[in-house]
Amino acid sequence: xxxxxxxxxxxxxxxxxxxxxxxxxxxxxxxxxxxxxxxxxxxxxxxxxxxxxxxxxxxxxxxxxxxxxxxxxxxxxxxxxxxxxxxxxxxxxxxxxxxxxxxxxxxxxxxxxxxxxxxxxxxxxxxxxxxxxxxxxxxxxxxxxxxxxxxxxxxxxxxxxxxxxxxxxxxxxxxxxxxxxxxxxxxxxxxxxxxxxxxxxxxxxxxxxxxxxxxxxxxxxxxxxxxxxxxxxxxxxxxxxxxxxxxxxxxxxxxxxxxxxxxxxxxxxxxxxxxxxxxxxxxxxxxxxxxxxxxxxxxxxxxxxxxxxxxx
Length: 312
Known about the structure:
This is ABC transporter ATP-binding protein. It comes from Bifidobacterium fermentum. Residues 5-235 form the ABC transporter domain. By secondary structure, this protein is of the alpha/beta class. The protein folds into two domains: 5-223, 3-Layer(aba) Sandwich (Rossmann fold), CATH 3.40.50; 227-295, Alpha-Beta Plaits, CATH 3.30.70. The protein is built from eleven helices and 14 strands. Helix 3 packs across helix 4 (109-122). The longest helix is centred in the middle third of the chain and has 16 residues, at 168-183.
């Protein structure tokens, strides 16, 4: 099966700055693919090259197996874009906005009506269809933004930070909607600064920086790439210096700290880290209460692989 998006050896410069450094990307049909990178990593440049909104020095971009170009209108009709910044007309109602954007792809009004109705129902804006954007909350505006991008039923949809500054209920509704689009046959390219969202909905994830791929795979595979293992937190009031030193000396312990209330241990990968820490506490007679063990997160992966927080 052909990839929905295939980018090979892409090079893009802005003067002396190398924005894309022989960049490769493959997005399979029917998947939700997460593209992560700190600000300035090249994500937006890559997306604009894929959409043929930017020229580039060398490389190849294909969408659904065909070369992408500024005049490949038959391919572009199969693409939907949901930008980070809400892009709607304040003078038009919810329905009029969706109808306008749908008309760019579907000229026949009669054919459009059902598509617009379906898009309004999909984002659950029926009771707001006559409202203008200025009367909508931030979460409802985001839903309108999505409806405008997907009303023509595109086969490939690019979501750029679709849940920025929305409430948890709207965020959950948006993520569930994206899953439904995937289940209906669409391919999704998804960018976000919210790692938990990416881990929740994406089949595969790429981390990029300095215009090139740093790592790629499922969330579980990416976590296996880094040295960090679990984080152990144990509530205790009476751990002594000797016991703390014994824990710090364990071969899998990267860091262990005690703040008079909790023992916090950052571990490298291991099969029985928690059991070994508890053995030392038991043997020293240390009393403890609550405990938790958390696996590494995508934030940990990102920080270790790039040396930066995602928003840097």
